[in-house]
Design a protein that fits this description.
Elements (H helix, E strand, L loop, with lengths): L12 H21 L1 H7 L12 H11 L6 H12 L2 E3 L3 H21 L2 H8 L9 H24 L7 E3 H20 L2 H5 L15 H26 L17 H16 L9 H29 L1 H4 L11
Antiparallel strand pairs: 1-2
Helix pairs in contact: 1-8, 1-12, 5-7, 5-8, 7-8, 7-10, 10-11, 11-12
Length: 319
């Protein structure tokens, strides 16, 4: 008896990406809702080497002798998983992958390779982007990757901090997926174009372009200024730049706005946003919101509530 092979014709890459982004966001929310999982797997950098981890380890050691199977095995297993870490400096790999994937898919689109055609055939249907939109969203995502790569190499400081290996793997997977998400809603347009990038026209910008591009540039500039300012501070210092007065992590806000702008720019005809890119934004916002919360907790613990307690986590007057 032989098992039937999956029907490749029904494989919907666009839908798969959307499900993957949302599933990752839900997983992060689940981990953050349970303190034993949050402290082991979601804190990293200075936040993982301070009050959050050491008391947890001490508490586990004090209570371990009272734990009975199977919970003792579960705790030991969680501790084992939490020890699978990589250097925090490996964040650099995210942007290497982002730039490399942008170049790779740019080449595929320009020459309309067999690989690209197969992926476009499997993209399903859900509205389509124009060639101009494909070129613009791809270019902006590539620019974002290049900027973040340059910041990581020029502003990054040597550190002994670690992060969970799954966090690193998830970041790699996200940027690889994002390099496809910015053009996959234009799959039908690519398939019906003889040479995709040769069909680009330079006409009056659409409303979505006039709204999205300034948002992208403004958010990118703000995020760069935040990163440069944070890099200039002595280690473990409360940021006092005006942009940090209302929010602990305004650079996270800027990151969300960057992906929102891409979702607007890449929205198919008749849609407000590009759904694939918007689901990526859902993941980014969820991940950064959890990190912003732990960052504020760390600031309060280290410097006192009177210094940072009044600041919002990420979005002023909202969160």
């Amino acid at each position: 008896m032989t098992l039937p092979l999956p029907d490749l014709a029904s494989f919907d890459l666009r839908q798969l990406l959307q499900i993957a982004f949302v599933s990752a966001a839900v997983t992060i929310l689940f981990l953050s809702s349970l303190p034993p999982l949050r402290t082991r797997f979601l804190t990293y950098g200075s936040r993982a080497t301070s009050h959050d981890v050491k008391p947890r380890i001490a508490a586990d050691e004090n209570t371990r002798q009272d734990v009975r199977p199977p919970w003792e095995f579960v705790i030991q297993f969680l501790d084992y998983l939490a020890k699978l870490q990589v250097p925090h400096g490996w964040f650099l790999h995210f942007y290497v992958v982002s730039v490399a994937c942008s170049v790779f898919w740019g080449f595929q689109i320009v020459f309309k390779t067999p690989l690209l055609v197969k992926l476009c055939d499997s993209a399903g249907w859900g509205g389509t982007m124009s060639l101009d939109q494909i070129a613009l969203t791809w270019s902006l995502m590539a620019a974002q990757g290049v900027r973040r790569l340059m910041e990581s190499t020029t502003l990054g400081k040597a550190s002994a901090s670690k992060m969970w290996i799954v966090h690193w793997m998830l970041g790699i997977a996200f940027y690889a997926a994002m390099s496809i998400a910015v053009w996959i809603d234009g799959a039908d347009t690519i398939l019906h174009s003889h040479s995709p990038f040769r069909g680009i026209t330079f006409s009056a910008p659409s409303i979505r372009t006039m709204l999205g591009v300034p948002l992208f540039l403004l958010a990118s500039g703000i995020q760069h200024d935040c990163h440069a300012y944070l890099a200039s501070l002595p280690k473990y210092t409360v940021p006092n730049h005006p942009i940090f007065h209302t929010a602990v992590c305004p650079h996270y806000t800027a990151e969300c706005v960057i992906y929102l702008s891409l979702a607007i720019i890449g929205s198919p005809e008749g849609a407000w946003v590009n759904r694939t890119v918007f689901t990526a934004l859902v993941f980014v916002a969820t991940n950064l919101a959890v990190t912003a919360s732990t960052t504020k907790e760390w600031y309060v613990q280290k410097f006192g509530k009177e210094k940072v307690g009044h600041r919002w986590r990420m979005i002023p007057f909202v969160f």
